[in-house]
Amino acid sequence: MDGGKFFGAFRACSGIKDAVTLTHVPVGCNWGAAMFKSTSNQPDIRQACTVMHEREIVFGGEEALREALVRADTLYNTPLLAVVAGDAPAIIGDDVEAVIDSVALNKEVVWMDAAGFKGTMREGYEDALVHLARLMEERNVIKNSVNLIGFCPDDFKVDADIKEITRLLNHAGVKVNCVISNCSFDEFVNAPAAELNVVMGQGTELVEHMKKDFGVPYLEVGYPYGLEGTKEFTNTICEHLGIGYDAEQEFDLEHFKRIYLYLHELYGTPVSVIGDFHAEPMTGFLDSELGFDIEVLASLEDDYFIFQQNVRDSNTTILFGSSFERNITEELKIPLVRFIYPVFDHVCVYEDAPYAGFRGAVYLTETILNAVMGFETKEIK
Amino acid sequence: MMYEQEQKLEIETTKGNGRAVGFLRPLISAYSTLPLHGMTAIPGKISGALMVVDSIEDAVPLIHGPVGCAFQRKINPFRPYLPFYETPCTDMNDVDVVYGGEDKLSLGIKETYEKYHPNLIVVITTCPSDLIGDDFKAVIEETKAKGDIGCDVVYTTGDFVKSKPVGYQDALYAITDQMLCNGKGIGMEKGEIERNEGSVNIITFPIHGAGLKTAEMASVLSEIGIEINKICFDHTTVKDLYDLPKADLTITDYPMVWAKLMKERFGVDHYEILAFDRFKETRDPELFSPYGIEGSARVLMEIAQRLGKEGEAEEVIERRKKVATERLSKAKVGLDGKKVAIMGGIHGIGMTLLRDVGMMASIIIYKTQVLESRLTSEAINEMLDINVKLARKYGSDPEVLVNPTIEEEIKAIKETGTDLVISMGATAHKYNKEGIRTFNPMDFMLLHQRIGFECPIELAILLKEALKKPQRRNPLLSMLKYDPYRTNLIPEWAALADMFGTIRQGAVGDKVVAGMYGM
Known about the structure:
heterodimer, A: alpha/beta, Rossmann fold, 3 domains, 4-stranded parallel β-sheet, B: alpha/beta, 23 helices, 12 strands, 11% strand, disordered C terminus
């Protein structure tokens, strides 16, 4: 199920780590955004809301927005207020821009119309980043540097994955200039200093914009899952930067050797995968490297009811997805490996346990094995 | 349930502090302490309505709005680890917002019926569909008139009632009004209903585990000769809902608008365990203390009186009380005179229960910061008085601390020789660090606190276990920095609470004179 434009914009904005996201919405939208975001990084709750209520619906939400802007400006010591306006102000016609222009604030303010009915989560993410891009400034290019684009701060394993990807690139001689959207305000402003934008799955409108405005070229790559996926990811970037490097030299099969008997057993296991742009690279790893048979591969835009039916009708014995898939896996009595947003029934706080990169391949394999070996069904009992 | 079964239940539920619910117990506690509800966010009407639909086994919601509304409301505010899995949605887009979403609603109803084959579809409207003025009633009637929909369909907007929680109250009202009063089930005219004379419905909040919480009450009422018509929400089906009007009385935890409608339409009277309405008139604090031996006896007698069974009730209640009191006298050995510090408010372990187990309230701690944006000072003061009045009535003379820092609390606890602090998990570590034992009331409230005579016995067992726990711990949590006043919040959350509380106060405009009972 797609999260809609509001969620996409909220996730993009909340990835500016020292910004406050002010949601101009009724309480329910604000609550949902907070709940999904607070699972694995609870102090990171830089969020304010205009708490639109009946009065605002009837008389307009502009006064509530004005008050919230002033209060957020006073309360939070941050460089940026990102105002994300949802469905209600879009329908009643609040003039958000005029309100923002009418108050003197100590922070930069960027706003976006992110009414949920106006698009998908991906579109909200893209739109928000383009709005935020007006904060970017021309910079001298830092040689062999890249921006990594496509992340959200509440992606499962995001911090661990970024740490591993950064380690890999640094090892290859590539500097990570900015990770979008999981960076500071300054890093975001300085993003045009990168020699290359590397976009994974989403953020394509931003990189087009940056190419046009700042001349930063871009490269679209798959999310680096598995040994081959990681090698291709790293080598492709290095090739574009003119760095002679082959990531295969980092292959370390020792960890897989330690569990090779289990991997024999799992070879040919029928599995299904559902997800956003992470799903295809994950499927590549499962299929090509672990030797799993892919029964169903579905995207978030697909009809979820049909996806569930397809999984029921298949031989699936492990499902890869999000917390939303817990129901179907409980019904089918099969393990669920969570890897995509939203995950709200598992936490990931340790930054050295990624799913991406070479180390991620090891940890992901370990997770899959443990999910299977620790799984109990009534039949086994 | 027979009395022997109740005793078995007691053993099962008290063993290991509620281990009978297995792995869920720590999860319930973990999520219950998320400092979100009311302080930093409010889930809104859709969540409340979804909770109602989720608790009806053969009902399915249909969210009439953009897909994001269905996506984000999948999280159940009271059980975030168990989402609302089925949230079909009409997926409104900008075209629908301009030209109306009625066609999509009709299609959504049809598809939802074809996919899920439920006995009830509850259409939950959202901001966009509410604002553009879709005629939900007409769409439902027209769609059903085509003959493709073989189930009841109702809609909830949040506008039918003004009582809180809005989504929860409104959905139940909608089901009563549109389905029970006008649906296709049993005869809908008052005169046509086959009454289950002298019977009652027992209704609890869907998160409370109705079967567990109502078993003893149902047992006592049955022994009095009062038949149990329905217990909700406990594996409740649409058929069960249709049977609700057969009863003579509906017992709810607190005032419910739908129960009042049942009285208007079907003549089914209603009784509220937490008697907000009567408190307004009498200001009797006992009305907020329905638990414990005397509180339960009062409630059970009042129910019996409503049904003209007070004569039968007297003997049953006295006998049950006697048996329970004898068992309690053994169970509470070692607790008599022990001093406890409690958190004031209308939620939490009631003073009557503490009296039953022989403990004295040495300190009452009030945290009013969260309430200040929602209640007037008059209402807050009245709430403060309730616990103090009851404590004094039962022979304690507690020291009252209003919005103390943790250091002030610790100092008072040590000076008064307090043995135990009744404290949620979010703050227990602060006391344990100082060598003060704590008792987490959340498990007790969720799994044990109920109308019945066994409840104080279970509390006594749990409190004795708490007094045996290590006195001093060095919890990792105590190394974190917390807000000095909202001692369960780290500074980041305290800032969020400040922001939300202030804005909400101005926006919602529902600051009430006596909000805690301002239904």
